[in-house]
Amino acid sequence: MKNQVQKKAKKASLSAMWVILGCAIIAFCFFFLVCGNPALFDEKGHPIGGNLFGTLFMGGYVIPIVMTLLLTVVALSVERSIALGKAKGKGKLLLFVENVKSELEKGDTEKAQQLCKAQEGSVANVLTSALLRYEDVDKRDVSNDEKAALIAKEIEDATTLELPGMEKNLSIIATISTLGTLMGLFGTVLGMIKSFGAMGQEGAPDSTKLAVGISEALLNTAMGIGTGALAIIAYGYYSGKVQDITNFIDEVGFAIGQTFTKKKLGK
Question: How many Cβ atoms are within 10 Å of 35's Cβ, its own excluded?
Fold first, then answer.
């Protein structure tokens, strides 16, 4: 089982690398070919009419790096939305859980398996594994408490196998939440260095260089903070979705274990 988890984690990291590379190519092409289009600037190198793309180009070479991080967050957020939708399965998860619990209370594990088969997804996979284990455990000559413990262990193991798929790329989004802000601050520092350089020369300060330096500093600050904020929101949202799914698994898992307790009380 440990090897399976490691393989899933490795596969996730490889796919994320391709996403980041693709986002980097798009960001740098957009920055140099679109934002850096000479037609957007006047003879002095200023954006014509405060053009947004031209203004963005004035932010310096840190901007495409921050843009790469921003696009990566967007791309991985879309990927997580699709993946977690599949993890929930075809129908409404809450209704599915209630139906399975209802069948378990009736003692109809076969019907519960049919519901899991129709639902599909990570939750259904874990419950199917638990129900198959239930049939095997129910035949054993051990106490009901031990049977419940075996089912709980099966659910725990099955959930461990499914979690890498549900949590895939969330660690990257969490990293970008900090890295995006830091890269923005790095660009800000570079812009301020240019600004102070223009102010520190002999005679009157070079107003153009001063303006460019301040513009670069503020643009990088805005982009970095925006990227970091989006990453934090995305991470919190999708982490909550994963927690909701695991809570549903725990709820049904508890219901399966309770069937043995009820049998014990019935005796």
Answer: 21
What Rg, from alpha-carbon coordinates, does the chain have? 27
Token readout for 157 is 């193991």
* Spatial distance between the Cα atoms of 110 and 105, rounded to a whole number of angstroms: 12
At residue 70, what is the residue type? Answer: L
Helix (H, G, I), strand (E, B) or coil at 41: strand
Please choose, from the candidates 260, 262, 252, the residue with its C-alpha nearest in 3D space to the C-alpha of residue 99: 252
What digits encode the pLDDT tens for the residues 254-265? 777 677 665 544
Per-residue pLDDT reduced to its tens digit, 137-192: 766 766 777 777 777 788 888 888 888 888 888 999 999 999 999 999 998 888 78
Side chain identity, residue 185: L
Beta-bridge partners for 41: 47
What secondary structure, in 3-state letters, does 204-252 show?
Answer: CCCHHHHHHHHHHHHHHHHHHHHHHHHHHHHHHHHHHHHHHHHHHHHHH
Cβ contact 78:237 at 8 Å: no
Q: Is the pLDDT of residue 8 over 70?
A: no
The answer, as to whether pTM is greater than 0.85, is: no
**Residues 161/65, Cβ–Cβ less than 8 Å:** no
Please give the Cα distance from 166 to 164 (Å, whole number): 5
d(CA 131, CA 150): 12
Mean pLDDT of 99-116: 81
117 half-sphere exposure, CB direction, 13 A CA radius: 8
Give the pair of three-digit tokens for residue 45: 């190198």
Report yes or no: 216 and 194 within 8 Å, Cβ to Cβ. Answer: yes
